[in-house]
Amino acid sequence: MSTTRSLESRIWFTEVALGEYDVRGVLVVGDERALVWDTLSHPRDMSRYPPLIGDRELVIAYSHADWDHIWGTAGLPHQGAVVLGHRSCLTRCVGDVPVTLREKQAAEPVAWDDVRIVAPNRVFDGETSVELGSMTVTLHHLPGHTRDSIVAFIPERGLLLMGDAAETPFPVVPEGSPLAKWIAGLQRWEGDARVRTVVPAHGAIGGREILRRNILYLQGLRDGNPVEATDPLSDFYRHTHESNLRAACQWGQTRPGGPASAGRV
Ligand SMILES: [Zn+2]
User: Top-level CATH class of 2-227?
Assistant: First the structure.
């Protein structure tokens, strides 16, 4: 079940309920080109976009290659479209992504038959930009949640699209995550006064306080002094917090002189 709503002039977002959590993608429509930020979990999630895109050139950008962000591409007129992603997003599209799709298809026959993995056909390492006509989207590598994670910034609107690099209440941290790099990447945006609106793929839309909270959470993991939630957590985030603590513990044990201790898990 998906809903598409206007965020501001020429910018829409689509939210899909996936059971344990929701995921959000964004459509940015310029004069000449339209950019879809994540195609979400299934081609049907994209059903509202084609009329909004009209006859503009289509550009698709993947925040990262996790299944709930890139499996809807076949629902768009993507033939001939530029599909942008980090270089390692392309690697994942011929690596773990088809494995996950086969697993889901085996677990739920028919449900995922329409999904086609459409890999990026234009990749970048550090950053790149796309001119949409009266709006620009700049894309920036921000690894941590995954190695291929990127964020998108629209300077004309002060709008920062995070993918899973930041979320509410906190991000999903894998084992071996480069926490220092991730924190530094978030701090860079948190200190950027141009950023007015922060749109994570999971959790509430807000301002730079979302970045601040994610930074504090990751710093807590890094320093062995985890931030405990004050609000009640959903089952998904309760389990995520436990697994984040385990991941940070692994990280502390493998890092020479790392401060994390097994005692807090
Ligand atoms: Zn996600």
Answer: alpha beta
**Whole-number Å distance between alpha carbons of 155 and 136:** 7
Å from CA of 156 to ligand 1 middle: 26
> Mapping DSSP to helix (H, G, I), strand (E, B) and coil, where does residue 21 land?
coil
- Ligand 1 centroid to Cα of residue 143, in Å, is 14
pLDDT tens across the length of the chain (265 residues): 899 999 999 999 999 999 999 999 999 999 999 999 999 999 999 999 999 999 999 999 999 999 999 999 999 999 999 999 999 999 999 999 999 999 999 999 899 999 999 999 999 999 999 999 999 999 999 999 999 999 999 999 999 999 999 999 999 999 999 999 999 999 999 999 999 999 999 999 999 999 999 999 999 999 988 888 778 899 999 999 999 999 888 766 544 444 333 322 2
Backbone angles phi, psi at 49, to 5 degrees: -80, -40
Domain ranges for the chain = 2-227
Identity of the residue numbered 162: M
Task: State the Cα–Cα distance between residues 150 and 117, nearest whole angstrom.
Answer: 19
Ligand 1 centroid–CA 256 distance in Å is: 31
pTM for this predicted structure: 0.93
Q: Which residues surround ligand 1, an ion (CB under 5 A)?
A: 68, 164
Distance 130 CA to ligand 1 centre (A): 23
CA of 171 to the centre of ligand 1 (A): 9
Nearest residue to 26 (alpha-carbon basis) of 7, 53, 47:
7
